[in-house]
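Input record (one chain):
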Amino acid sequence: MCNLHSNTMSHEAMRRLFDVSLDASSLGNFAAQPAIYPKGEAVIVRIGEDGGRRLDLSSWGFLTPNKSKKMGNWLKPRAWNNARDDKLTSVPLWKSAFETSRCLIPGTGYAEATGRNPATYHWFRVAEAEGFAFAGIWKHHKGKIGVEEVEGLFHSMVTTEPNELAATVHNRMPLVLLPEDHDAWLNGSAEEARTLLKPYPDNGLEIFGSGVGVRSEPGLDA
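The corresponding structure, as predicted from the sequence alone:
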């Protein structure tokens, strides 16, 4: 499970890396994000109505109603920030988005925690890369979830089996895409996208920081 990642690329770097024109970006004066948590805003690269790539801000987590079992009252909607690769085609919450609305989630790192009170955070990134893309799915939601009115873009990050390095910390890892697979994830069929559901190559990731309470990208302040 991934509950924390970062994106400290500049707006220009993201447009260059993901081949997005300036007029196809709604980011404006984008500020670096050294710590992104569930329900927080993150950048996604998606296909717009004109068939081209665009950069937009989206809330991290598909929302579902959440009612108290004890009191029976509505609570804040539940945010499902991770979508397991082995359930993308069987769970209704994910299935439609996987088939029609996949996205890239720009990132410069992600963290997994070990231990508790306090936890130690281990930060991973793609070695020798300015930035990279997590695989995601997105949806536009307008209407009530429980009693809360919501409107906007929402996304979830796909997770998969860990590679050798990631397995030293956790039994899952985010699905990090190779640059040559970006287009297939965005524009390919569901069958083509399914072939990309695999761990990042063992020699492609590195741990670039670990420490108790290190809850933002190492070397930066949240």
